[in-house]
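Per reviewer request, we include the raw input and output of the structure prediction for the construct analysed in the revised manuscript.
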Amino acid sequence: MKQIDVVDADSHVMEVRETWAFLDDEFRHRAPVVVQGEGLATNSHIDAWWLIDGQVHPRLWGKGTTFSGTPLEMKFARDKVFNIGSQGMTDIDARIRDLDAFGIDIQVIFSSILFHRLTDDARFEAALMRSYNTWISQRCNERPDRLKWAAVIPMRDREACVAEVRRARELGAVGLMIGGTAGQTLLHHPDLSPFYAAACEVDLPVCIHTGWSAPGLTRTCEDPYAALILSFTLPVLMGFFSIVGGGVLDRFPKLRVAFLEAGSEWIPYMVGRMDHYHPVVAMLGNRSKKPPSEYLKEGRVYVTCEAEEPLLPQVIELVGEDQILIEGDIPHAEARETGIEELRERTDISEAVKRKILRENGLAFYKL
């Protein structure tokens, strides 16, 4: 029997048709539908898509490539080791069995399809996110002792954004999921201040997750590898710049933020470059009062790590042993059953720090 004492700071649900059952009446006729067909497939594993506003998602090739494991009707989902009921959380007992198999006590659930930009209509996007939040709250409430969730926040609809932060708290969310940009707007833009104020007001952490939030980057990539490494990942670095270098932490001293699913080894590079240029831009009117490395000492900036990262000890030294989180990334294809055990077996990290990464830091960040 595996030791079950892990807080998984970032895993996922694969959205199903029922996810959109809570759409506002105004948008019900535009609810996402599943389309299938071998003759339409450009890859034998992706033979089903979401059809939303006349566009299919995911888009496996060509400008604007994106990728996900939903809808669950696709072969890619059916071939995973995870039960379909667990992937879509239509079978909560199956999800709990997966947690037990991985040695996970508590899992924080994030969306999968909503870190894509599904529509140019910001109001419809907000409606999709509201429906998802209502749905996932009901799914997790079947086992609230083991399953927690982060609400998806519609950052492109300023009015809906603040309202959804407050509703998320009422529904029981433990975090607020956003991308590394708000569309083409960087996260330190003054127009987004009401979002951060609301997050502090309801005491929910901001979770900046990998995803296709920056339209220009998304359109640049034309194949899955480029999309996953560049347009999917780089927005997290852009978000880090905004939060740590754009003055957000100065303006909102109660804010705590995590950067999820991009690994952790990019942080020394980003902090080094930002510290290097901070004195130069300070002469031009820099937005942040201190160099980025100074903000890391405040204990409000968290990051998820990968168990196998060679530079993890250096990241721990830079970011702080209390600010590193572990992610299971269930039920994504790259999730590895050995990941947690691999971290436990490392000899270059102390047992006390391992316990913090595997459990204590997750409890603290999400205030569980």
